[in-house]
C-alpha cells in the first residue's frame, strides 16, 4: 500500500467512535503509508484519538462535520436535511479528490443513496451494490449484492457480476474469476425468469468466466470466486449464516461448561480450539469470545 488516503465516517454505525477510532488506529499501525481523514465532531474525535496517545500524527487528520445520520433514518431525509453529516462530508472528500475511498459503518441505505448522488455511477452501471468476502474451506468467495438493492432485474444482476469480477481482478489478481448465480438448484431449468435471463446474459459474455448456478450451501465451498444474487436474497442468506454461527458457538460453549466432565473435555480440546482460532484469524473470521 502506497500513499492511500481514505475518508472515514467516524460517527457512523451502531457504536460510532467507540468502534471506528480503535479500528482506524489498528489500520494505521498495520499500514504506515495509509492516511486517514476522520470525519465527525472534531472535539469528540480528538478526545477518542488521545485515548490511544494520538495528538500529532501525520497519518490522521480530523475533518469537522456537525451532523450524524442515524441508523434508522430515512435515506431521503438524510440527503435533504443533513448535508453536513459525517457521512456526506466523507463522501464529498472523495468527489473533491482529497481521498481515494470512503469507509462508513453507518446507515446502509443512506450511504448507497448519498454515494450514488454525489459520486454517480460508472457508465453502464445503474446501481451500486454491496459486496463482501466470505471465508471458505479453500480461500475465499465474494458475494454481491448483500442488501443495497432488494429488487433487481436481470440487467442489474449482470452489472453486479461485472463490478464484482472487476474488483476480484484488481484485488486478487485473477484474470478470469469464476462467477456463479445463486439459485434454488444447479440445473438449467431451475429458477425464475430473472435468474434465467441473467444466466443467459452471462453465458453470452466472453469477457467473464460464468460457471453456472450454485445453491446456498455452496457459499462456503470455495469452488467459485463470486456469487451473484439480488440484495434481498443475499442479505437473508448472510443473516442466516450469522445466526447459524451463533447457534453453533452457543452449543459449543454449553457443551464444554455443562458439568465437570465436559469441562475436563474442554481442557483436552484446548489445542484443537487453539488451532481453530488461528485458522479463523488467518481467514478473516471474527473470533468469538469463548475462543478469544
Automatic annotation (TrEMBL):
It is found in: Cytoplasm. GO terms for biological process: fatty acid biosynthetic process; phospholipid biosynthetic process. It catalyses: a fatty acyl-[ACP] + phosphate = an acyl phosphate + holo-[ACP]. Pathway: Lipid metabolism; phospholipid metabolism. Keywords: Acyltransferase, Cytoplasm, Lipid biosynthesis, Lipid metabolism, Phospholipid biosynthesis, Phospholipid metabolism, Transferase. It comes from the Bacteria. It holds the Pfam family FA_synthesis. Belongs to the PlsX family. Homodimer. Probably interacts with PlsY. This is Phosphate acyltransferase. It comes from Legionella feeleii. The lineage of its organism: Bacteria, Pseudomonadati, Pseudomonadota, Gammaproteobacteria, Legionellales.
Amino acid at each position: 500500500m502506497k500513499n492511500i488516503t481514505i475518508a472515514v465516517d467516524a460517527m457512523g454505525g451502531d457504536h460510532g467512535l467507540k468502534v471506528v477510532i480503535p479500528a482506524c488506529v489498528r489500520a494505521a499501525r498495520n499500514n504506515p503509508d495509509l492516511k486517514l481523514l476522520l470525519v465527525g465532531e472534531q472535539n469528540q474525535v480528538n478526545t477518542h484519538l488521545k485515548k490511544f496517545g494520538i495528538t500529532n500524527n501525520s497519518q490522521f487528520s480530523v475533518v469537522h462535520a456537525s451532523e450524524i445520520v442515524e441508523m434508522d433514518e430515512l435515506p431521503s431525509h438524510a440527503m435533504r436535511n443533513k448535508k453536513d453529516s459525517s457521512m456526506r462530508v466523507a463522501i464529498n472528500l472523495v468527489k473533491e479528490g482529497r481521498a481515494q475511498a470512503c469507509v462508513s459503518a453507518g446507515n446502509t441505505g443512506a450511504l448507497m443513496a448519498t454515494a450514488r448522488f454525489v459520486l454517480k455511477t460508472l457508465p453502464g452501471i445503474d446501481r451500486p451494490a454491496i459486496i463482501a468476502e466470505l471465508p471458505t474451506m479453500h480461500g475465499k468467495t465474494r458475494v454481491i449484492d448483500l442488501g443495497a438493492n432488494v429488487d433487481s432485474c436481470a440487467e442489474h444482476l449482470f452489472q453486479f457480476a461485472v463490478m464484482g469480477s472487476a474488483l476480484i481482478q484488481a484485488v486478487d489478481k485473477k484474470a478470469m474469476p469464476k462467477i456463479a448465480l445463486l439459485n434454488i438448484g444447479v440445473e438449467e431449468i431451475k429458477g425464475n425468469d430473472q435468474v434465467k435471463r441473467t444466466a443467459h446474459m452471462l453465458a453470452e459474455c466472453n469477457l467473464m468466466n460464468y460457471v453456472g448456478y450454485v445453491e446456498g450451501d455452496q457459499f462456503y465451498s470455495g469452488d467459485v470466486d463470486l456469487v451473484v444474487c439480488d440484495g434481498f436474497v443475499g442479505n437473508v442468506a448472510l443473516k442466516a449464516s450469522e445466526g447459524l454461527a451463533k447457534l453453533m458457538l452457543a452449543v459449543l460453549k454449553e457443551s464444554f461448561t455443562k458439568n465437570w466432565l465436559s469441562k475436563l473435555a474442554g481442557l483436552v480440546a484446548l489445542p484443537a480450539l487453539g488451532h481453530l482460532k488461528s485458522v479463523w484469524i488467518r481467514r478473516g473470521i471474527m473470533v468469538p469470545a469463548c475462543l478469544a
